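Subject: Sanity check before I submit

Could someone independently write out the C-alpha cells for this chain? I want to compare against mine line by line before I put it in a report. The sequence has 215 residues.
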Amino acid sequence: MMMMLIRIEKVKMVMVLVVVLLLLLQLLQLLLLLLLLLLLLLLLLLLLLLLLLLLLLLLLLLLLLLLLLLLLLLLLLLPLLLLLLLLLQLLLLLLLLLLLLLLLLLLLLLLLLLLLLLLLLLLLLLLLLLPPPPPPPPPPPPPHYHHHHHLNYHYHYHYYYYYYYYYYYYYYYYYYYYYYYYYYYYYFYHHHNHHHYHHYHHHYHQHHHHHHYYY
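---
Independent answer below. Compare away.
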C-alpha cells in the first residue's frame, strides 16, 4: 500500500511538470503572436509616415512653383512680392524642419523594427536549438480489485484514467513537433519497459499469491 501511494505521488509530480511545460509553450506562442502584431503595427505606422512625407514633398513643390510665379511678377508688384517672398521663405524653413523631424522619426521606427525582428529571430533560433524535454514516464498499471477495498479501488481507478488523459494529451502535443525524439523514446521505453514489465509482473503475482492483499 505504501509503495502504491509513493507511485501515485510520483505520478502527480510528473503531471504537474507536464502541465507547467504546456503552459510555458503556450506563453511562448502568445509572446510570438504579440511580437508579430507589434511588427504589423509598426509597418502600418511607417506606411502612414511615408504618405505624410509624400504629401509634404508635394506641398513643397507647389510652393516652389508659386515662388517661380511670384518671381515672374516681381517687376509688377515688387513691394508686395518681397513680403510674400519672406513669408514663403519662412514657410519653406518650417517645412524643411518638419521633414527633418519626420525623417528622424522614420529612422527611429526602422531601428525599432530591426530590433524586434532580431528578437523574433533569436526566439525562433532558441526554439529550434533547444532540445525538447524528455517525455513523462509511462503510467503505472491499474490497481488490483478486491471486494473489501471497494472505495479505495474506485479512487485509484479514477486517478489512473485521469492521469492517462493528461499523459496521452501531452504525448500528442509533444511528438507532433519532435517526431525524431518520438522514435528514440519509443524505442527506449519499449525495450526498457518490456523488461521491467515482465519483472514486475512475475514478482507481483508471486507477492499476490503468497499474501492475498490489496496492492
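---
OP: Matches mine. For the report I'm noting this point. The helical segments are 2-72, 78-129, 150-177, 179-211.
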